[in-house]
Specification:
CATH class of the largest domain in chain B: Alpha Beta
Order of helices and strands of chain C: HHHEEEEEEEEE
Distance between the termini of chain C: 18 Å
Structural class of chain C: mainly beta
Strand order of the largest sheet of chain B: 11-12-9-19-16-17-18
Number of domains of chain C: 1
Number of helices of chain C: 3
Oligomer: heterotrimer
Distance between the termini of chain B: 65 Å
Chains: A mainly beta, B alpha+beta, C mainly beta
Number of helices of chain B: 19
Helix content of chain C: 10-25%
Radius of gyration of chain B: 28 Å
Largest interface: B-C, 55 and 33 residues
CATH class of chain C: Mainly Beta
Structural class of chain B: alpha+beta
Number of domains of chain B: 3
Number of strands of chain C: 9
Radius of gyration of chain C: 15 Å
CATH architecture of the largest domain in chain B: 2-Layer Sandwich
CATH topology of the largest domain in chain B: Aldehyde Oxidoreductase, domain 4
Amino acid sequence: MSRFGKAWVRLSENPRRGQPVEIRAMIVHPQESGFRLDDVGRPIPRNIVQRLTCTYGGKEVFRARLHPAMSTNPYFVFYVLAAQSDDLLFEWTDDRGDVATHTVRLEVSD
Amino acid sequence: MTQVIRTDRRAFLIKSAALTGGLALGVRLPEFAQAAINTPQGPELTHWIVIQPDDTVIIRIARSELGQGSFTGLAMLAAEELECDWSKVRAEYADVNEHVRRDRIFGSMSTGGSRGIRDSQEYVRKGGAAAREMLVAAAAKQWGVPVSECSVSNGVISHEDGHRKTTFGKVAAAAAEMDVPKEPKLKDPKQWQLIGTSPPRFDIPDKTTGKQIYAADVRLPGMLHASIAQCPVFGGKVKSFDDAKAKSMRGVKKVMRGEDWVAVVADNWWRANQALRQVAIEWDVGENGNVSSESIMQFLRGGIEAKDVPVARKDGDAEQALAKGVKIVEAEYYAPYVNHATMEPQTATALVKDGRVEVWVGTQNGETSIAAASEAAGVPLEQVFVHKMHAGGGFGRRGPHQEYTKQAVWIAQSMPGTPVRLQWSREEDIQQGRYRPVALVKLRAALDEQGNWTAWHVRQADQSILITVRPTDIKNGVDPVNTRCFSDNPYGVANFTDEYAMRNTHVPPGFWRAVAHTHNPVFRECFIDELAHAAGKDPYEFRRPYLQKKVKDLGVLDAVAKAVGWGTPAPKGVHRGIAVVDSYGSFTAAAVEISVKDGSAIDVKRVIVAVDSGYVVHRDAVKAQIEGGILWGLGSAMHEEITIKDGRVQQTNFSDYPLLKLAEAPAKIEAIIMPTGGFWGGVGEPPIGAVVPALCNAIFAATGKRVRSLPLKHHGFSYA
Amino acid sequence: MIDGAPPACTGRRNALRALAAGACLLMVRPAVATPEELAVAIRELFGDRAINPGRINLEVPRLAENGNIVPVTVTVDSPMTEQDYVKSIHLFAESNPQPRIVDVELGPHNGRPRLATRVRVAISQHLHAVAVMSDGSLWSTAVEIEVTVGGCAP
């Protein structure tokens, strides 16, 4: 069963063409490092989010490779230059190969 | 390598470019002597010591005073090397905010693990010595004479010509400009004049007269008071709550919630707490609502019976030796959860205003408090000011767990500009503890024909504390703290295996004074008594051959045996027990004399504890720690137990979680302080370890009843 | 740190960035007090390319009470134009069970050379950040973070 939960994305207000938009993106996922032990001292199997990609109007604008040291419910703040009004598509992939996606519309004003 | 610094305590500016290179390479100034700066209090001679024109010496203390005497002891260490006039010394806590701004110059503030003195003694003494050398150098410079012609005593610097004299206060400002010596010379312990004595402690007068302000006593203008209820089942959350009644009650200002707590803020604490009781809270208890002491015992038993379990230590071949043993002794021992039950319940006062956070808290680690407050408020450390208060008992409760600090900040944050004093009720304190973990142990040992101890095997099943605070210390499933007393036992027995089965429950664990050295010594030392009995030998004589190589263990064991008159007949009806335990760098032993009436009423006549901590700083404080440790051990052995039902703690207050009463205390307590020198061992926790096993061994001698689980009251015993 | 060997690299969080720049010789010469695994990770990613101190800034709280969620902010001195931009940012924790934390690819389309996230820090140590620029140059910085388990931990 997929360990992915809800995605949460917020964009800065009033994106203006040619200006950077602040994007805050989080996905619910245990980010099980593989270093933790269970109640009887056995290692809990690793399952982390390995990758986050973000495309803007189909063009990739962000790619992150995550390792076990990223906190539970991986969270990023990054920027994208506002160009056209278009979809931002976020895609997270974990060790099990499960995928979570989320789409947010970036409305750009002049 | 002096830095030229502006005389502004808060703005730490480095001017000298030549020195920047050194810093850039990461070469720190010696930790005992960051550059001297002028502070509003007066010139700093190293960051540890400020000397005022009137010769007042302010010594800064980084650790916390919990009643154990470190506030005075640490000052003595610095003062010894400083050669100041002790009557002019004043100790104060190093300011936590300043510590952070000055890049942690005061070192570790962690007060636990009996570390306060032994971990900081070297750099604190060096700070005092460096300051002394700077003062003498300044006087010598003023006089135009070599330093070697000057001497110093009691805050007075003299030249060998017998004419020139000056005091610290007069040369302090000039001394602050001198280079900080990199390798100040420390006295040989034989030259100590202050260390090892018992000057009046700084904290005792106010504590005796009631003047001492604890975090619970803080009163600020406009302050409100809060009481809190956290989910009684650990890990649960608030589902909903109805505060209609509470809000209408007298004095109530606010009812607010967190993820797993509800708090009421009112104009006094009583009203806040009364109103809190009227809030109908529905808890989502989560998955642990069915856990009980019985289910926990089952869980532990699984650890005892499991097939493959991590090995903490393996010498020789215990299995084979056990198979060949002529006599096999086998026993299972158990110890329950217990609570710190600090006299002062968890309390913190917070004030949030204009992005600045102020916290008043009795903490065992100022850094943990500032980090917790900073995290809770979401502001940088530099915006947080922690007022360290003497704690009304720490015992390990007030260090790594700062949830009350965070809660106070969250509440204060919701009413900026209003100070809020959050005090947990006693019930909350008992039920939301960080408990000494439950432990079940199975021991097996073999004796040969001559009654020699040839092998033993220990299987431990208990709950790890480390996994919640420092999981990286756990390697291959072995908790290095919980296996102490076994994995590092001093007995020279060729075949030994210690296995560790971690069994973690939902009950939150914490470091209870002496941690694993409270119950593991009982398991070990009582079991060894069983071996002695099976071998038909005297328990004291039985132990000695296996401690041949352990001179210090033997030293304290022999000392208590001699003091109690072991080997000579005891008065009629009086029986003795003995035990030896080393922990936190020190070596201790205990001998207990009791008489038992009607097979159940224990009259503890005499308890003798010997401690070899290498060195002793404040002698009377060490004696007090021994005496207190004895009472701590006796009380917990008889009374203390935390039980779980429906996922929650059943005990509520001192009525059902009693501590030792005055009438139950032993008639005679003897502290044998025997520092053999050459090492620095702790004193806060070590005295406890040997007391309870010695008592249990005495109980066997008196009644023939072997106690293998605590508390004693479950075996029909009480203190006469 | 106080309890162990003095750190070879001391980063400062506030106005002393110029010093911090000098503090990162650590990255160029892994032999200088760099834990084994970190050196291996760096070699894996960057081979033997020179890594210069500077241009990248790493902000972390100096004291973390809970090492599980430590906020980290990285900023790079770069105009983020088509000719001159940050290609990637890499974070490391020298004393974690595994030193790599995250690797982020960027480009001129990002507009602002800033990245924030939350990381797990197992014990007190240094965190390192490396930025790879469009011209192929590598820049690094490091900061110290203290995880205060504190209290009665024996």
